Amino acid sequence: MNDILARLQDSTVKMIGLHGPGGVGKTTFVKEIAKKAQNNKLFDVVAIVEITANPNLQKIQEEIAYVLGLRLEGDGDNVRADCLRRRLKREENTLVILDDLWDKLDLNKLGIPLDDALDDEDDGYYNKMNKSEKINNDYQNPKRKETNNAERNPNRKVMKKEKPPSEYKGCKILLTSRDKNVLSDKMEVKSIFCIKELDDDDALMLFQKVVGTSNEMSNFKQEIVKKYCEGMPMAIITVGRALRNKSESVWKARLEKLKKQELVGVQKPMEISLKMNYDHLENEELKSIFLLCAQMGHQPQIMDLVKYSFSLSILEGVYSLMEARDRVYTLIRKLEDSNLVVLNGSSSSYFNIHDMIRDAALSIAHKEKNVFTMRNGKVDDWLELEQCTSISICNSDIIDEFPNAINCPQLQFFQIDSDGPFLEIPERFFEGMKKLRVLILSGFLLSNLRSLIKCLSNLRMLCLERCVLDANLSIIGELKKLRIVSFSGSQIQNFPSELGCLDRLQSLDISNCYIERMDLPFISKLTFLEELYIRKSSINFALVGEKSQG
Fold first, then answer.
1. Closest CA to 170 of 81, 71, 62, 43
2. E strands of 243-387, at which residues?
3. 485 - beta bridge partners?
4. Is residue 92 within 8 Å of residue 44, measured between CB atoms?
5. Which ranges are annotated Basic and acidic residues under compositional bias (predicted)?
């Protein structure tokens, strides 16, 4: 760590790389570096962003801008990149940590400068910044107020205390990746460090710390740590959290089970440790919530988890969304205590799962619950999905279009998104999914909704998000078991007043919608409604005949 901190202070070094296998502790390591760098006042600003296998450039830009107190304006990636680049060039000492690169990332397209020199165009842009943005920046960081005041009056000269070259660092970049070649070849990083697995002695020390004991460990405990965790800190912590406070007989039984599993096939350390932790979760409710978390992708919203679990009736004895929210927050904290999920420190609305834990959890879900989850892949064989209880397909290509029908008699959860406006779902596609309780369709042009969903009488949650809905939607009012309906981000020609027939509806989301016609009185009929989301929507109410911005 001291070597990396020293390189960060070297004015000749712009980028530093850190590589090591997944689960070895790279993220924890760079967070500690960020903490020390700030505590020792090496940098004025430190921004940490998780990149993931499929980076979202806009989200990365926004996360960096948030730390800077900068509001990015404009819709285009290039506009935001220019704004971010100019701001980072103005900062004297900034550290940007991009964690978990899987492939080449275009830093210039992001707006992360590789050259700290400030050109004339940057000066002109900065002097033309609007007054409100300057005031906002001053409010976020009062230290810039004196400089900004001078820039508002370009004729006034203010002596600025310059830092010695040894103290000026500009924008430093720290990258992490599992693959050294990503850093050296694709990102062209010259200064690269490696973080390795723990040796046996350090692994046992970490394990003792996790389980809270300083006593000498029995041989079968040591064997579990040395042989099945293979020096991976995440695996060691996961096993320790699962079996702490358990009796010696439980440890011994677990070792015997691991030895039997070896005869069946080779398992990775993370799969072994995660299965151990999963098996020791206190009840089926907590296990089901954890597997559902794993299906939800990167940084999912807790409220989505609430709605899914409520609609699937995972939460025993819970009949309102308020009760569901309280129960899910309690369960999420238990999963966090077991080192299975991470709550977002800056917001209580999101959670995250390390991708290795997610992969291992999805493996369990597939083997034990017939759950199919695909992200950024290609679907070309629908027949293999017929035994599934849950199907989630996101950011993936549908090869040869949808089949006319698919027989999934046990399916309860179906989610699919599309970026292709010409991809159509056949009218009989859902006929073999009589038990379906949650249906989420995103990004579709739906002109045959009645034919599509009339057979889904058990549906409790229907989400038609970012869709174009130009058909008659009255069929929705016939699905009497619906508890949650969302049209978020959709264009709707005629909003179905028949929703007023859903006397058990508890949540309705029409945020970010464009609705050409809506009859307002139907809302008064929804006597069980707990949540109504209507922000940033453009709605033509039929009663008043004029446009209202929600």
1. 43
2. 342-343, 351-352, 371-375, 378-379
3. 462, 508
4. yes
5. 131-149
Phi-psi region of 466 (alpha: psi -120 to 50; beta: other; left: phi over 0): left
pLDDT tens string 325-363: 999 999 999 999 888 998 875 557 889 888 888 988 999
Q: What is the DSSP letter of 514?
A: E
Task: Specify the residue for token string 């165009």.
Answer: 121
Rounded Cα gap, residues 459 and 461, in angstroms: 6
Record the pTM: 0.74
Question: CB within 8 A of 354, min separation 6: which ones?
Answer: 23, 27, 234, 342
DSSP 479-508: -TT--EEE-TT-EESS--GGGGG-TT--EE
Q: How far apart are CA 22 and CA 338, in angstroms?
A: 19
Find the DSSP H helices in 265-301: 269-279, 284-294
Q: Among 286, 272, 296, which Cα is nearest to 360's?
A: 272
**Helix or strand (DSSP H, E) at 25:** none
Q: In the Cβ-directed half-sphere of 21, how many Cα atoms lie within 13 Å? A: 14
**pLDDT single digits (tens) 239-279:** 888 878 788 788 788 788 777 766 555 567 778 888 888 98
One DSSP character per residue, 116-151 reads ----HHHHHHHHT--HHHHHHHHHH-GGGHHHHHHH
The strand pairing partners of 170, in sequence order, are 93
